[in-house]
Amino acid sequence: MTTGEMVEQSAVPRVVSILSALLQRVAERNDAAAEEEEEGSAAAAGRRPVSAFQGLTKPAISIGGYLERIFRFAGCSPSCYVVAYIYLDRFLRRRPALAVDSFNVHRLLITSVLTAVKFVDDICYNNAYFARVGGISLVEMNYLEVDFLFGIAFDLNVTPAAFASYCAVLQSEMAYLEPPPAPVEAPRLQLQHYCAGPSSDHDVDAAVVAAAGCHRSQQPQLTV
After folding, report:
1. In terms of domain of life, where is this protein from (predicted)?
2. Which of 53, 83, 84, 134 could lock 107 by a disulfide, CB 3.0 to 4.6 Å apart?
């Protein structure tokens, strides 16, 4: 195996970076909202929703670094991250009092990915291995998995339409993170030299607009 092939195999899929960026933004927003609430009410200081996923401190590793660690060591397919996102959304819809923040997002991620990989992939590691990857104990991993499954009412099936819908959400997030570059208009003299001699300035403008349109049509697509 060449060096280029090894680098390609170890490359983190785009869906992982997009999902981590989305959750990072949500967690930061909820962190700020919780801090404002605690500052406004002395009785609320230090009080957060009671949940098995809620930690006492913020993990040192970032959300992006944590998801990359899961990808590199768990070896699950990129589709698992889309399904994990679907499961996480289902879980939070059934528990509206629980908001994704820096204290619970890591446990929610490792549990949702574990649940997804068991449902989607043919071969996967056991809970003990996922606990080591996630930096938690096996007892905690088992408890979180059971709590998560009951939280989504064991609704594990994902239809192709639902999968495509959540892919579209992640794709729009990619467009938000990576806006397409502005089309570069070629100089008119260059067009006049290489094209078959536009007969007027109007023809040159039409050629430039056509070239810009072709450039915009080549948008990056999310591959899952």
Report:
1. Eukaryota
2. 53
Report if residue 223 sits inside a domain. no
Looking at the fold, whether 37 and 138 belong to one and the same domain comes out as yes
List, as one string, the DSSP characters of 144-196: HHHHHHHHTTT-----HHHHHHHHHHHHHHHHHHSPPPPPPPPPHHHHHHHSS
Question: 148: which residues sit within 8 A by CB, 6+ positions away?
Answer: 87, 91, 111, 112, 115
**Do 212 and 109 reside in the same domain of the chain?**
no
Domain range spanning residue 213? 182-217
Token pair recorded at residue 50: 């009671």
62 shares its domain with 114: yes
**Count of Cβ atoms closer than 10 Å to residue 150 Cβ:** 11
Query: pLDDT digits over 101-126, tens only?
Result: 999 999 999 999 999 999 999 889 99
Is 55 in a helix, a strand, or coil? coil
Q: Is residue 94 located within the same domain as residue 114? A: yes
Kindly report whether the global pTM for this prediction surpasses the value 0.70.
yes
Is 142's pLDDT higher than 80? yes
Are 109 and 136 in contact by the 8 Å Cβ rule? The answer is no
* Per-residue burial over 102-136, b = 16 or more CB atoms within 10 Å of its CB, e = otherwise: bbbbbbbbbbbbbbbbbebbeebbebebbbebbeb
